[in-house]
């Protein structure tokens, strides 16, 4: 297996560099997981390493070559999971051959299947025999309209003709062995896909791609979707199975991951497992890698994924004084600042010496994802009409490993801001080292209600809260902590979300009078002074609690159906159980799920054989979605 490339028509270094990197990538490769791009090959290059390739998952691009021979003679299938110019799975463009007067075939003898995408041939004056190929036997009919086949009007006379025995006169090169094998257009009507001959008994199994040697799903030349050992399947064996006696999804000891078009027991080294049980090289941007039970998995990030960025004075910001209009976009999506942040008046004024325009105050929102600053935070300027440090609302910790030295050893300094009335640092839980100075902010209240000592990591840290708005004036003008705040702990501002601790209960970090225990939507229960939603499968109760805890088995009454101890949206229907059997259940009059009779293959609507459903109502896809929804209930 090899990765393939995504260079399109770009040349990497010299012709020789380009060739060597292709050779290194494809040496001994049978399955290309991405695209196969053969470009800029020069006349004397030896491309015999292409002979091992059997399968390409993306597209094949053969362009701008002057090489004599491109021996893709074992390529059977192009899956077209990615397409060149969003259209073509096979593009053969502007190949001139090594000697303009010599003609050569392109021996794609085994190519019998392109699952997605069309074919394009353009400007290949030295190619032979290609105009004879029946592409509609290879390409899926829905892509035929996008085919673009441009062959020389009169095939050069130096080309050798197809062998007369070739069916419909189509071949990849001269000689009997190079006839095109037809496996679709010749099939009997009964066949649903490919076949190995004209008779109805020659149909391939519908899991086959390219062709087959017999009728079973283990006789395919290539699998249309997944290969599990010798057998072609629609999906890999599921990782979880429903256990009808415990009413739970259990780990399937025979479950497999999908790796490209193959089912594997373990992902290869350097691959991680997604939610859906596929092996991938990197997690999607909204998830991160974790190790669970010895398996590396992608897990959804809670909020923005961790991203570490340099602070001011470090790396790309070495000679920078302040966050400013030129650099603020570099802080987008950062969760940890390695170093310090400075916001100085020059940011909002602009600086002609460094060609820095004034910072648009709205750009400060780029800092909203910051949770951690390893150094210090220095703010000496802030937009005129903003009343709190809104951009740092999610800041949780200032480590103070480096300190602002000029006027002390500060890790948090908010100095001389005229318009803020509160700090608004509602998530700040720790200042590990360094002193705090909040000074000369003439409209600022609330800062002296905070018990700074509780935030400090060492006993020697000090807080200087001085020359802000007079405490008596704050009180007189009602600029005091919200009544929902615990009166002992202080607050970062006037809102119920600014409290350090709550008087009663909280919901998503905001203080509340009470939770929705007996009324209100959604219904909740209380855990450690926090309002937490009941599971959506719990039926809201009038005048009574709706649930006693988390999850679908803590409901007082189910909203839909009851499967053992759990509330479920639907009874299990066609989900994989042990020994490769599907589990089906029906609901009785009181909405309790019961197992169908074991001889009901498509489920049932009631007990016994007479309750069996006769038709296949649930597609495998429907069952899969059910399983997925079901599985997520337990995670
Ligand atoms: C090109 O091929 C022709 C015919 O085989 C041969 O006569 C000629 O010498 C070749 N030219 C070059 C540059 O190799
Ligand atoms: C045909 O090509 C066009 C343009 O490249 C593309 O948008 C369209 O999706 C293609 N149609 C099919 C069936 O692939
Ligand atoms: C603004 O940021 C850019 C890029 O970091 C930097 O080159 C420039 O010196 C900065 N200007 C000021 C006044 O900090
Ligand atoms: C920031 O994150 C969003 C959402 O995850 C993403 O779409 C965007 O591309 C990211 N931007 C940068 C500059 O990383
Ligand atoms: C701040 O003031 C500027 C102009 O004085 C105005 O354009 C902007 O909308 C104001 N922003 C807020 C958040 O009030």
Automatic annotation (TrEMBL):
One Pfam family per UniProt: GF_recep_IV
Domain Receptor L-domain, first and last residues per copy: 28-138, 333-455
Database matches in Gene3D superfamilies: Hormone Receptor, Insulin-like Growth Factor Receptor 1, Chain A, domain 2, Receptor L-domain
Record flagged with keyword Phosphoprotein: yes
Main localization category: membrane
Record's bilayer topology term: Single-pass type I membrane protein
Top-level class of the enzyme under EC nomenclature: transferase
SUPFAM superfamilies hit by this protein: Growth factor receptor domain (SSF57184), L domain-like (SSF52058)
EC code(s) of this entry: 2.7.10.1
Keyword tags: ATP-binding, Cell membrane, Disulfide bond, Endoplasmic reticulum, Endosome, Glycoprotein, Golgi apparatus, Kinase, Membrane, Nucleotide-binding, Nucleus, Phosphoprotein, Receptor, Signal, Transferase, Transmembrane, Transmembrane helix, Tyrosine-protein kinase
Reactions this protein catalyses: L-tyrosyl-[protein] + ATP = O-phospho-L-tyrosyl-[protein] + ADP + H(+)
Furin-like cysteine-rich domain residues: 154-310
One of the GO biological process terms: cell surface receptor protein tyrosine kinase signaling pathway
Growth factor receptor domain residues: 480-612
GO cellular component: endoplasmic reticulum membrane; endosome membrane; Golgi membrane; nuclear membrane; plasma membrane
Protein's cellular compartments: Cell membrane; Endoplasmic reticulum membrane; Endosome membrane; Golgi apparatus membrane
Name under which the protein is recorded: Epidermal growth factor receptor
Upper classification of the organism: Eukaryota, Metazoa, Chordata, Craniata, Vertebrata
Gene: EGFR
């Amino acid at each position: 297996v090899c990765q393939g490339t995504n260079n399109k028509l770009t040349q990497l270094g010299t012709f020789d560099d380009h060739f060597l990197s292709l050779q290194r990538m494809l040496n001994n490769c049978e399955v290309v997981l991405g695209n196969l791009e053969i470009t800029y090959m020069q006349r004397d290059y030896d491309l015999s390493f292409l002979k091992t390739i059997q399968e390409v998952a993306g597209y094949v691009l053969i362009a701008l070559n002057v090489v004599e021979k491109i021996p893709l003679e074992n390529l059977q299938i192009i899956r077209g999971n990615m397409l060149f110019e969003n259209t073509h799975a096979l593009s053969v463009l502007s190949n001139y051959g090594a000697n303009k007067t010599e003609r050569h075939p392109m021996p794609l003898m085994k190519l019998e299947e392109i699952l997605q995408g069309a074919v394009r041939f353009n400007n290949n004056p030295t190619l032979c025999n290609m105009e004879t190929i029946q592409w509609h036997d290879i390409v899926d009919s829905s892509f035929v309209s996008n085919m673009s086949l441009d062959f020389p009007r009169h095939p050069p006379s130096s080309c050798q003709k197809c062998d007369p025995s070739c069916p419909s006169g189509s071949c990849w090169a001269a000689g009997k062995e190079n006839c095109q094998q037809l496996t679709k257009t010749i099939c009997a009507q009964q066949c649903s896909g490919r076949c190995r001959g004209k008779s109805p008994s020659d149909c391939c199994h519908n899991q086959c791609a390219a062709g087959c040697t017999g009728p079973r799903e283990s006789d395919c030349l290539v699998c249309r979707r997944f290969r599990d050992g010798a057998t072609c399947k629609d999906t890999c064996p599921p990782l979880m199975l429903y256990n009808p006696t415990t009413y739970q999804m259990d780990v399937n000891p025979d479950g497999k991951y999908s790796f490209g078009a193959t089912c594997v027991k373990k992902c290869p080294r350097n691959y991680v497992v997604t939610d859906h049980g596929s092996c991938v090289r990197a997690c999607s941007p909204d998830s991160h890698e974790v190790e669970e039970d010895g398996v590396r998995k992608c897990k959804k990030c809670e909020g923005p994924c961790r991203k570490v960025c340099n602070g001011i004075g470090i790396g790309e910001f070495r000679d920078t004084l302040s966050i400013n209009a030129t650099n603020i976009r570099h802080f987008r999506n950062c969760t940890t600042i390695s170093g310090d942040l400075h916001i100085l008046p020059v940011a909002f004024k602009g600086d002609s010496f460094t060609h820095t325009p004034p910072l648009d105050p709205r750009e400060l929102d780029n800092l909203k994802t910051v949770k951690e600053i390893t150094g210090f935070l220095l703010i000496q300027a802030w937009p005129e009409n903003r009343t709190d440090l809104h951009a740092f609302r999610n800041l949780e910790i200032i480590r103070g490993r480096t300190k602002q030295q000029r006027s002390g050893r500060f890790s948090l300094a908010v100095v001389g801001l005229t318009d803020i009335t509160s700090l608004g640092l509602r998530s700040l839980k720790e200042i590990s080292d360094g002193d705090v100075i909040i000074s000369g902010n003439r409209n600022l209240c609330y800062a002296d209600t905070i018990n700074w000592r509780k935030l400090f990591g060492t006993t020697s840290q000090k807080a200087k809260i001085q020359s802000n708005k007079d405490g008596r004036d704050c009180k007189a003008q009602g600029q005091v902590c919200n009544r929902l705040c615990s009166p002992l702990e202080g607050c970062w501002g006037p809102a119920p979300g600014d409290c350090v601790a709550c008087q009663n209960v909280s919901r998503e970090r905001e203080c509340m009078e009470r939770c929705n225990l007996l009324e209100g939507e959604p219904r909740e229960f209380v855990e450690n002074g926090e309002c937490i939603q009941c599971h959506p499968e719990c039926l809201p109760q009038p005048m009574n609690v709706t649930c006693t805890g988390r999850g679908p088995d803590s409901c007082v009454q189910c909203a839909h159906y009851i499967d053992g101890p759990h509330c479920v949206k639907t009874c299990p229907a066609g989900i994989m159980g042990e020994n490769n059997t599907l589990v089906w259940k029906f609901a009785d009059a009181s909405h309790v799920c019961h197992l169908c009779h074991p001889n009901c293959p498509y489920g049932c609507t009631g007990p016994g054989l007479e309750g069996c459903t006769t038709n296949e109502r649930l597609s495998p896809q429907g069952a899969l979605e059910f399983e997925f929804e079901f599985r997520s209930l337990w995670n």
